[in-house]
Amino acid sequence: MQTAASLDRMKSSFIREILAAASDPDMISLAGGLPDEKTFPIELLKPTIAQLHNDVSLFQYGPTQGYAPLVKHLNQLYQLPEHHKLLVTTGSQQGLDLIARAYINPGDGVAMEAPSYLGAMQVFDFVQASILPVVQLADGPDLEALEQCFANDKPKLFYAVPDFHNPTGVCWSLATRQAVAKLCVEYGVTLLEDAPYRPLRFSGESLPMVSSFCPDQALVLRSFSKIASPGLRIGVVSGPVQWIESLIKVKQGADLHSNVPAQAMLLGVLEHLEFEQHIAKVCDLYHGRYQVLLKALERLEPFGCQAQPVAGGMFVWLTLPDCDSFALAKYLIEQGVATVPSDVFYSAKKGVSALRLNFTNATPERLEEAVKRMYDALVSC
């Protein structure tokens, strides 16, 4: 049977291919954005799991919007305005997919920072959007380029990860957040703020969400994969009621509703008295590993490599002298280190030569060994 034209446009995920190679126990993977399994809140989950059998309704079909007690809790947690609503999704990736299918027609413009999250580019490419790359600077998108894009190309959406950006780890400044919100309102562009890494800040002061400066011109994606468990597959999208109602309609046709027992389990974790302490421990663990990796990467500076410091999240962006980042990443796999080449994060022309390195799913010893192997590989190149 002939595949749909939209599927033919979609490239396979290089990251997924790398993760397959990284399953080798001798491979040190700095590739996928995997949380450490030791951070999964199993002890916090146990009380809820033990009680699941007492509520048979959890195993029946549920409302598309989500498990009502979880929806209520999240409304209070996020302090949503009365004219806003949220939808529980099967991971925040489904939220992206629902938004693309509900609002993007072939040819509609979607502005994105360059580089940008590969999974978002795949989703928007699948619905045949016109991806409009905007150069990213040290504190967020190039505002002059963004305004020019808004004025000339008139995109429908601006997709962004302002807190600990994937792949670069950049965290937008307060001034940039306010300026972007102002531009979205002025030009009638919907901000799609993706915030999966926002809770993983391990240094510096937390900044307001960009959407807080343009709440009625924004949709917000949140994920619990990084702070609870990716296996639960629970995410949330929130925004003005009429926009969320359209997403609910699409979700009804997609999967009826997300896993109800998993939503109940997540609620149990979020309401647990030790949850905030759990998040603090996760951030401390990741901070320590980040410091180990950053220090180790100093060995690569004589080759023209430069690690960009971050204040949270899961990734370090290692810039390189101009080179074929695909070829380098494949060579490093042969040396037992999995990384992600920068080329996969650009929608069009080649961007900065770099590697995305994950520091959350390897021990300090493995991080140091990975950099040693990278050093040896660069020496032999």
From TrEMBL:
<dbReference type="InterPro" id="IPR015422">
    <property type="entry name" value="PyrdxlP-dep_Trfase_small"/>
</dbReference>
<dbReference type="InterPro" id="IPR050859">
    <property type="entry name" value="Class-I_PLP-dep_aminotransf"/>
</dbReference>
<dbReference type="Pfam" id="PF00155">
    <property type="entry name" value="Aminotran_1_2"/>
</dbReference>
<protein>
    <submittedName>
        <fullName>PLP-dependent aminotransferase family protein</fullName>
    </submittedName>
</protein>
<keyword id="KW-0032">Aminotransferase</keyword>
<dbReference type="InterPro" id="IPR015421">
    <property type="entry name" value="PyrdxlP-dep_Trfase_major"/>
</dbReference>
<dbReference type="GO" id="GO:0008483">
    <property type="term" value="F:transaminase activity"/>
</dbReference>
<keyword id="KW-0663">Pyridoxal phosphate</keyword>
<feature type="domain" description="Aminotransferase class I/classII large">
    <location>
        <begin position="26"/>
        <end position="373"/>
    </location>
</feature>
<dbReference type="InterPro" id="IPR015424">
    <property type="entry name" value="PyrdxlP-dep_Trfase"/>
</dbReference>
<keyword id="KW-0808">Transferase</keyword>
<dbReference type="InterPro" id="IPR004839">
    <property type="entry name" value="Aminotransferase_I/II_large"/>
</dbReference>
